[in-house]
Amino acid sequence: MGARILVVEDEEALTTLLRYNLDAEGYDVETVARGDEADTRLKERIPDLIVLDWMLPGLSGIELCRRLRARPETKQLPIIMLTARGEESERVRGLATGADDYIVKPFSVPELLARVKGLLRRASPERLATVLTYGDIELDRDKRRVARSGQPIDLGPTEYRLLEFFLEHPGRVFSREQLLDGVWGRDIYIDERTVDVHIGRLRKLLNFGRDQDPIRTVRGAGYALDDRFAKVE
Ligand code: CA
Known about the structure:
The chain is of the alpha/beta class. Helix content is 39%, strand content 20%.
């Protein structure tokens, strides 16, 4: 599955151009034209990267960026800010607010695509890796094998995908809804309690005969890979 990109831009022609080109690169693209709508959308669903226009109706790109950085779930979310030429002097403020990169309009599409790719690679090299490791856990995507301390572990397809998803975003806390989106896919209706069932199974299989549980339950928020666990030898 391609990385998910949310484009927040109110110029329709630009949105169409970006959607077309990002789509052609294999990304999963969503677009929103208002800052406040983007804010609401981002509370439900977190993409892998945002292309965020500076001037937007409803809520400015800068303010949205500031809000995203203030929330733990979106603190690390890669953001590319789009600014118009007249706003260039504001660049410093943009970066200070927490954008990872910025592009001045008008820009060339290949340049934007290169920035997107570069930022995604920097933000989550895990997405591209064949073997994901965390603490003593190893997941080999080519062989579809999981091991802990070198001992093979047999996971069902859902538990495998769940673990893979966690390993792609180590330390990040996911709500049940976000896990449903990321692991089961957004068009499937499944009760959120199903997530608990599969987390339970994953834990049981991963932790059999072991003391350390790599999965952290975050009360009222969801689940994450325990970052203390990464240091376990
Ligand atoms: Ca605009």
